[in-house]
Amino acid sequence: MAADITSADLSVQVCNLVKRFGAFTAVDDMSFEVHRGEIMGFLGPNGAGKSTMIRIMCGLLSPTSGLARVAGFDVAKEPEAVRQRIGYMSQKFSLYDDLSVLENLRFFGGLYNVPRAEIGARIDAAITMAGLRGHERDITGTLAGGWKQCLALGCAVLHHPAILFLDEPTSGVDPISRRAFWDLIHELASQRVTIFVSTHYMDEAEYCNRLALINRGRMVATGTPAELRNSRREAALLIVRCAPLGDALAALQKHPDVMEAAVFGDALHLTVRDAGAAIETLADFLHSRDIAVTELREISPTLEDVFVDLTGIRPRRNEAYAP
C-alpha cells in the first residue's frame, strides 16, 4: 500500500489478540493492521486458526485477551456495530438451496436491512455481478458450485459493507470458477472495500495484496507475496527432475550440502546454501547412484516453499494437488 496512508484509512487494527478454548489456544498473540481497499490473505493449513480469527473480527466470537477494532469499533464491546458494517461469506456459501436465486437475494436484502427504495437496484446489480442474468428463478440448489459461490458473494455485499470477510470461500470450487470469483474480489477492492480471505490454496494466495502466514494460531510471517518469496535470501532453491524419484529423495536428504529436500509434483525441490557449487556436486552424486538426471537448476522460491520453510507443513496449491 502507499506510504502516505493515514490512520483514518485503517479498516482493521488487531493488537496482541488471544483466543483460548479451555487449554487450547486457537489464536496466539496476533497483531496486524489492514487499510481500506486492501486484500489481506490468511494462508495456512486447516486448524491453523484462520477461521477463528475471522469469526472474532466479525464479532461472532469474543477474544480471550487483546484488542481488535473493525471499522472503528471494538469487536468485544460493540459486536453488533461491527456486524452491521461487514459482509461475511463462508465455504458453505450460507445460501438456502430450496429458494430461487431471486428469493435468496431478497431474503438477505431484508436480513441486512437494505432500504426498500434501493433493494431492487441492488439485487439487479448483484445478479449482474454474479453472472446470473436469466437464472433469477432457478432453484439455488440446482446451480453449479461456481454460480453458487458468486451468488453468495452477491448476497454478502447487498448492504454495501466496508469490509468483507471470506472464510475459505472457494473450497471445492473448480479452478476456472475460482479465477472468475477473484475477478469479482478485485473489482470490489477497487471500490475501496477491504477484503479478508482465508485460504489453504497457494495459487489463490498470489491474488492477495498482502498475506499473513498462520500456523498453530501464530502469525509466522507477513508481507506481499513477492516479499515473502524473496525472504529466503540466506538459501538457494534448486529443482531436480530425475528417476527414480524416491531413491533420489532418500539420498539427497542425507547429503551434507542439502538443507532440505522435498517432493514437488514430479520433481524435487532442494534448499542449499550455494547454488553453483551444489549443482556440480549433486549432479555427480546422483549419477554415481545410477539416478538419471534430466534437469538440475536454480529456481525462484514459491509461496509453498516459503511456507514449508517456516512451518514444515505443505498446504494445498489447488484441488489437483490436494494430499
| Rg value | 23 Å
Helix vs. strand class: alpha/beta
Number of DSSP helices?
11
CATH architecture of the largest domain: 3-Layer(aba) Sandwich
Could you report the average pLDDT, rounded to the nearest whole number?
88
Give the overall shape, derived from the CA principal axes: elongated
| Order of secondary-structure elements | EEEHEEHEHHHEHEHEEHEHEEHEH
Widest β-sheet, arrangement of strands: 6-7-8-3-9-10
Determine the CATH topology of the largest domain: Rossmann fold
* CATH class placement of the largest domain: Alpha Beta
The CATH superfamily of the largest domain appears as: P-loop containing nucleotide triphosphate hydrolases
Termini Cα gap: 35 Å
The biggest sheet amounts to: 6 strands, mixed
Task: Explain what you see.
With 323 residues, this protein is of the alpha/beta class. The protein contains eleven helices and 14 strands. The strands form three sheets. It has a six-stranded mixed β-sheet, sandwiched between helices. Helix 3 crosses helix 4. The protein starts with 9 loop residues before the first strand and ends in a 12-residue tail after the last helix.
